[in-house]
Amino acid sequence: MDRKSEELDQALELWQDVEIEHPRLNARVWARVANEDLEPAALPNFFRLVQSILNRPVYAAAFVVACVLGGLLLAELRVAQQQVERGEQLAESYKQVIDPLIKDTYLFK
Fold first, then answer.
1. Does the structure show a pLDDT above 70 at 103?
2. Any residues with CB less than 8 A from the CB of 104 and at least 6 apart, and which?
3. For the segment 7-40, what is each residue's pLDDT rounded down to a tens digit?
4. Rounded distance, CA 99 to CA 89, Å?
5. Residues 54-86: tens digit of each pLDDT
6. Cα–chain-centroid distance for residue 18?
7. For this UniProt entry, which segments traverse the membrane (predicted)?
């Protein structure tokens, strides 16, 4: 155990003997300390921040809505791109129907 952990443990042991006016504060503090011991400490700070934000239902719902709207936008962009490609293919087919030798001329792009 490192020095900081030992100092914290000593401070927490001293705190157990302190009289508190609020009846449940002592139990809530110790439950929070026990909960922090159970949480994995391996998460980087960014992921902890994201987790703390997404734990709130309003922000989690907003995140889901943003993901759905982003997916719909990407799908719409893909459909538009496919339509442009299809239009180019139709134009090329039309040119070939009109003049099959157009590939050999300077008009072909």
1. no
2. none
3. 777 877 777 766 667 767 767 777 777 776 665 5
4. 15
5. 899 999 999 999 999 999 999 999 999 999 999
6. 43
7. 58-77
The answer to whether the pTM exceeds 0.90 is no
Q: How many Å apart are CA 84 and CA 92, to the nearest integer?
A: 12
Contacts of 63 (CB under 8 A, 6+ apart): 54
First to last CA, the chain: 74
Q: What span, in angstroms and rounded, lies between the C-alpha atoms of 33 and 20?
A: 17
Contact between 26 and 20 under an 8 Å Cβ cutoff? The reply is yes
The DSSP H or E segment spanning 89 is helix 57-98
